[in-house]
Design brief:
This protein is an alpha+beta fold. It has helices at residues 17-31, 43-50, 54-66, 94-100, 122-125, 163-168, 171-177, 196-202; strands spanning 70-73, 77-80, 85-88, 105-116, 132-142, 145-155, 182-193, 209-219, 224-233, 237-240.
Length: 246
């Protein structure tokens, strides 16, 4: 599969050759030139093609295995794994992030209805327990594969949302279109095992690792306009954070 892949090496560069090979293979995976499930040539063929030693090629492949881009399978060889969705931690919707990344987002609306809010979420939204709020449950797909199960609670009068709108546009885009000026969010990220229902919806086994995200979004007046509790397939999704020294 890598036979026609162009890998240009700068042998005068201080960058190690194994790392040059690994980075160019990683970029080919990100571009889609090496599709999920495609097999790499074996180490001997790759080493011969590039004029490198087998240990150098082995080190490059191991680097990508460690990063989760390749997997070694006995009797099959080295394969590209399913591309993981990487998302920066910003005040954006998953739908918009997937669309920008070319991941072909799709949404199945599982629930969209007024519900009395419970004692845990009521104070977050600044309402009394039992107050009717809009409850929203969606299954989000990326490139035709289930990626996340999303639960949201919103003030009932905030915006007129329809299932049709939510299947074609992101929640934050719809809120902004309704005049909601979202300003800041508090977010907590964690992990846990999938329940039987979550595993069925996300095409994972019961007990599979899931990333969790709980987020409350506030408008420019400091009012809570949305509370979300979401789970993501850890095998397909990760979050990236840029750290700045102050």
């Amino acid at each position: 599969m890598t036979a026609n892949l162009a890998i240009d090496l700068d042998r005068s560069s201080p960058v190690p050759l194994y790392f040059q090979v690994a980075e160019q293979l990683a970029e080919a995976i990100r571009r889609g030139d090496l599709a999920p499930g495609s097999r790499l040539d074996n180490e001997i063929l790759l080493a011969d093609k590039l004029g490198l030693s087998r240990p150098t090629i082995r080190q490059a492949i191991q680097y990508l295995v460690d990063k989760g881009l390749l997997v070694r399978k006995r009797g099959v060889g080295t394969q590209v794994v399913h591309g993981q969705v990487k998302r920066s931690v910003e005040l954006t919707s998953l739908y918009d992030d997937l669309r920008r990344a070319g991941q072909e987002p799709a949404t199945q609306v599982l629930a969209l209805e007024p519900r009395p809010v419970d004692e845990q979420i009521a104070p977050i939204l600044g309402v009394a327990p039992g107050t009717q709020v809009l409850y929203l449950e969606r299954l989000r797909f990326a490139s035709s594969e289930p990626l996340a199960l999303l639960h949201n609670w919103l003030p009932l009068s905030l915006a007129q949302l329809t299932a049709e709108d939510l299947e074609t546009r992101g929640l934050y885009e719809l809120l902004r279109s309704a005049g909601v000026r979202m300003r800041v969010a508090n977010q907590r990220i964690g992990a846990r095992a999938a329940t039987l229902t979550e595993g069925r919806l996300l095409d994972e086994r019961r007990g599979a690792p899931l990333l969790t995200m709980v987020r409350t979004t506030y408008d420019d007046q400091g009012r809570a306009v949305e509370h979300g509790s979401h789970v993501y397939r850890a095998s397909h999704y990760s979050l990236e954070v840029t750290l700045i020294e102050r």
